[in-house]
């Protein structure tokens, strides 16, 4: 089995947005600071988009460690 089968994602699912490397929040490209965790490291290589409205009631939010409502990437590459 090849270990090189995974293709890099060249285009984010949502043009004009990037994902925080720390908490996976999706923020507009022009932002230089994450509104959720205050992080400053971002990537355009992210996959999947999830919108969390009520983190306290969402098992997905708990699984991903999300405590604040907003848009998040499911996977940051
Ligand atoms: Zn963040």
Written account of the structure:
With 77 residues, the chain is mostly beta strands. The protein has a single domain, classed as Rubrerythrin, domain 2 (Single Sheet). The chain is 8% helix and 30% strand. It is built from 1 helix and 5 strands; from the N terminus they run ββββαβ. Strands 2-1-3 form a 3-stranded antiparallel beta sheet, with no helix packed on it. Strands 4-5 form a two-stranded antiparallel sheet. Strand 1 and strand 2 (26-28) form a beta hairpin. It is globular, with a radius of gyration of 13 Å. The mean pLDDT is 87. The structure holds zinc ion. The site of zinc ion has 8 residues, from loops. Zinc ion binds next to loops.
**Bound ions, cofactors and other small molecules, one mention each:** zinc ion
Q: Tell me the helix content.
A: under 10%
> What assembly state would you assign to the polypeptide chains in this entry?
single chain
- Neighbour order of strands in the largest sheet: 2-1-3
- Structural class label: mainly beta
Q: Overall pLDDT, averaged? A: 87
**Number of beta-strand segments:** 5
SS element count, helices: 1
CATH architecture: Single Sheet
| Secondary-structure element string | EEEEHE
Biggest sheet statistics: 3 strands, antiparallel
Q: Could you tell me the CATH topology label.
A: Rubrerythrin, domain 2
CATH class: Mainly Beta
The value of Rg in angstroms is 13 Å
Shape: globular
Q: Termini, distance in Å?
A: 21 Å
Query: Any low-confidence stretches, pLDDT <50, length ≥5?
Result: none
Number of domains: 1
Beta-strand percentage range: 25-35%
Pfam families: Spt4
Keywords: DNA-binding, Metal-binding, Transcription, Transcription regulation, Zinc
GO molecular function: DNA binding; zinc ion binding
Domain Spt4/RpoE2 zinc finger: 17-77
């Amino acid at each position: 089995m090849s270990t090189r089968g995974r293709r890099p994602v060249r285009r984010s699912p949502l043009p004009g947005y990037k994902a925080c490397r720390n908490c996976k929040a999706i923020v507009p490209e022009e932002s230089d600071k994450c509104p959720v965790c205050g992080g400053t490291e971002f990537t355009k290589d992210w996959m999947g988009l999830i919108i969390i409205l009520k983190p306290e009631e969402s098992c997905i939010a708990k699984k991903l460690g999300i405590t604040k409502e907003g848009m998040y990437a499911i996977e940051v590459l």
